[in-house]
Amino acid sequence: MSTSSPSEPSSLVQGPIVRTLFFFSLPILLGNVLQSLNGSINAIWVGNFLGETALAATSNVNLLMFLLISSIFGLAMASVILIGQNLGAKRIEEAKKVVGTSIMFFFSLSIIVSILGYVASPIILDWMNTPADAKSMAVTYSQLMFLGTPFLFGFNLVMAILRGSGDSKTPFYFLLLSAVIDIGLNPILIRGIGPIPAMGIAGSAIATFIAQCLSFVLLVMYLYRKKYMLRITKKERHLLRFDWEIIRITIQKGVPMGLNLVVVSLSNLILIHLVNSYGSEATAAFGVASQISNYVQMPAMAVGGAVTSMAAQNIGAGRWDRVSRITWTGVLFNVVLTGIIVVLLHFFNRQALGLFLPSEGKAIELGMNINNITLWSFIIFGIFTVVASVIRASGAVIGPLLVSFTALLFVRNPLAIYLSHAHGFNAIWWSFPLGFAVATTLNLLNYRFGKWKKIRLIDDSTAASVS
User: Fold this and answer.
1) What is the dihedral sign for C-alpha 40, 44, 45, 46?
2) Which pLDDT value is given to residue 465?
3) SS3 for 196?
4) How many angstroms separate the CA atoms of 41 and 35, rounded?
């Protein structure tokens, strides 16, 4: 089964699960590759044109922007689950009401976040213990990135709606467009060409802003031209309102999912605060290693996103037999795909780091050690991600949050701090496999013995309240 055209949602409750999951997750995986490749190539431009200090600045800001994306991820995923369950139950009108309310809610939220982020950037970067030599560039970069928040939120919301309705191809095409624009504009705006002045690190942020803006506008225009079934037409403008019952469900389910990524972000901020104390070379090594680990996590994140949409539609349709098979098929996909990437990166460790860092020097040696210890542990992380995605698709969101909170903030970070003080920088990274092992074990226990299958988002009372 392939995904449908954007003129109508695609059913994920029929057809062979292996084939459906593969072809649905593949565009998500390729989209994740594009996003990380986009960030990596931009890091190459910044590192080669502006130096390690600028790279350290963008590494700090990228973690801050991950925190920003975390603030909307959960709410967007709640919309995906609501839309998916309603479509699985063939409640098209209820799905459109979720879309209308989500648009208004996310637009308002994006304006607030944009203003607050712009004003608070210097303070936040101080809290992160950003190296003094990178602080000025980091502030400039972060403030410009925050100005693009409305387009970032809008782009991510529309992609989430499409994936929730069973279309993973269209988001990929427009992610490709965004990446091409961003990658192409970065060197031009950083160094300048012809009448375009050299803007330095500000040019990199402006390139991203332009790419997100154009891609979002063109995506919306495309969906209306193709008469996408969940679009809001002129006759349905009354759906563009704050339906407080839908907002209540979105917040109730979305905030814990968002907090899950906030926990990850907070854990990483604590970690980079620790890393920053070792100087700019250590920060640059960690930043580049994080870029590489993004690629390792891609299969798990792609399969996790796919199983969320698939499980949500099947739960809405009452197809619990398929939900179980979706779970273990997703786990198998993750182990195989992530394992292949880990093996390749271990063979080409220095070469991968050398794309961002000088081939000789302290930073690349530190980065190689980080990769040697942490990369294989992302196979374990992927199992946690896939299983947690299925549990969340039912609307049971507290369990995975508690698991992440415990494994990262009570296991990984305290262990990293202890190892740093006791054995130095190179020992910090053993906290990764131990933290992921705890997370996976706890989540498998929740999947087996938890009450997540009893959660309902669109039972009779809920359906009535949002109709």
Assistant:
1) positive
2) 37
3) strand
4) 10
Burial class, 400, CB count within 10 angstroms (exposed 0-12 / middle 13-18 / buried 19+): buried
Per residue in 101-130, pLDDT tens? 888 988 888 898 888 888 888 888 888 777
Confidence of residue 285 (pLDDT cuts 50, 70, 90): confident
Residue/partner pairs of 6-10 with CB below 8 Å, 24 or more apart: 6/162, 6/167, 6/170, 6/222, 6/223, 6/226, 6/228, 7/226, 7/227, 7/228, 7/229, 8/229, 9/87, 9/95, 9/165, 9/166, 9/167, 9/229, 9/230, 10/165, 10/166, 10/167
Contacts of 291 (CB under 8 A, 6+ apart): 36, 39, 40, 43, 356
Alpha helices, H only, 1-16:
none
**How large a percentage of the chain has pLDDT more than 70?**
94
Find out whether 389 and 333 touch, Cβ atoms under 8 Å.
no
Amino acid making up residue 174: F
Mean pLDDT for all residues in the chain: 85
Residue 422 has pLDDT above 70, yes or no: yes
- How far apart CA 411 and CA 233 sit, in angstroms, is 50
3-class secondary-structure state, position 193:
strand
Tokens 């995605």 map to which residue? 389
138, 148, 276 from 123: Cα distances, Å: 11, 19, 16
Q: How confident is the model at residue 3 (pLDDT cuts 50, 70, 90)?
A: very low
Instruction: Give the pLDDT of residue 377.
Output: 93
Q: Which two tokens mark 135?
A: 């602080």
Contact between 33 and 188 (Cβ < 8 Å) = no
For residue 70, what pLDDT is reported? 67
Question: What are the Cα distances from residue 127, in Å, to 67, 70, 122, 130?
Answer: 14, 18, 9, 8
Element housing 156 (H / E): helix 149-164
Q: What is the band of 11 on the pLDDT scale with cuts at 50, 70, 90?
A: low
DSSP letter at 296? H
Residue 196 phi/psi, 5° resolution? -85, 120
Q: Which amino acid, one-letter code, is at 70?
A: S
Q: What is the pLDDT of residues 390-411, one digit of tens each?
A: 999 888 889 999 999 999 999 9
**Over the range 185-211, which residues count as b (16 or more CB within 10 Å of their CB) and which as e?**
bbbbbbbeeeeeeebbbbbbbbbbbbb
Q: What angle do CA 317, 321, 325 make, to 5 degrees?
A: 115
